[in-house]
Specification:
Blueprint (H helix, E strand, L loop, with lengths): L1 H8 L7 E6 L3 H18 L2 E4 L9 H4 L16 E5 L3 H6 L2 H4 L5 E6 L4 H4 L6 H7 L6 H8 L4 H15 L17 E6 L8 H14 L8 E6 L3 H11 L10 E3 L10 H15 L3 E4 L4 H9 L5 E4 L13 E3 L5 E4 L8
Parallel strand pairs: 1-2, 1-4, 3-4, 5-6, 5-8, 6-7, 8-9
Antiparallel strand pairs: 9-11, 10-11
Helix pairs in contact: 2-8, 9-12, 12-13
Amino acid sequence: MKNYMKMHNNPKPNSKYVVISPSGQMCNKMRGIMSAFLIALLSDRILVVKNFLYGGTSYSDLFEDPGFNFQGGGGSGKQKSISMENAEVFACEDFVSEFDAYSTISLNGAHYIPTYIMQNPHYQQRMSELFYENDIARPILAYLFQPKHSLLDRALKQRAELVGIPSADFRKNVPQKDRKHFITYHMRSEFPISPAETKAYRDCARDTTPKHKVNDAAVYVAADSMEFVKRFSNDLSVENGAISQPNFLSTTTFVKGGKKGGLELAFLDLLTASMGDAIFVSAFSSFSRTVILYSQTSSIYLVTDYVMPEQDPHFKVEKLSSPHCYRFYSKEPCAW
């Protein structure tokens, strides 16, 4: 990373570039940028990001300075444009050599392509040198997307209040025996949740909570609709046998498409959800996958009554005794 920073901050007339215009919302854009950064590392190119966020929110509103500015700039000369959905290029071809004649590689989309690249025989050795045991996304995330300290503190204070940590100690790693067990959910509110699926979420949380903490748990629900959060929280707490007297917190609405406060609050939601002792996520969600990447726990679960998304060889989960409840083996995102 130090070598990359030196190259990035000292461009030369013959420097080459990877330029990305990431599509989608916040977490999709982050996935696309992480993909482009990996290509920059492999090909000794400088990363340039166009249109990072939207609605008046800048990179610096959410993240700390990584030590170089990847917004704007870029080179001139011969360019090669490629879609990030072109899996064959990244999984099979020697694309660094193939694109060497071009001064700029222009990427479009927001796919997470390191999953393809780590299976590419041309780059397996180099990938093993750069990343330990194919743990790719988390070190790149930590390098490019370190949360703004002020936002991280707000999330930590929110968690401290929920789990019973004194306000003065909100940054401390207080052992579970001295606080409530913290359960977090991320839900996609555009998908209707059936009573059976709600029961699966409740049962999976109950069955994975340490027995001595079943009566001492706090629950945080993150979603992009306040109405959905309230309804889901109420449904979770209805049935006998669920976690006794859970402290549900209604989260702030994520404003789709635009306002500065909306994006900041969405990222705050994401950070708080990532701090769970047990985290329950939704299938096919870039927000959920980003929650997983920021998390420190290995107790991450997927609850679904749909078909399991198993399109990637690395995507492995363990089916638990609770119906429709699965535990992740890997935090590495899928290639979609």
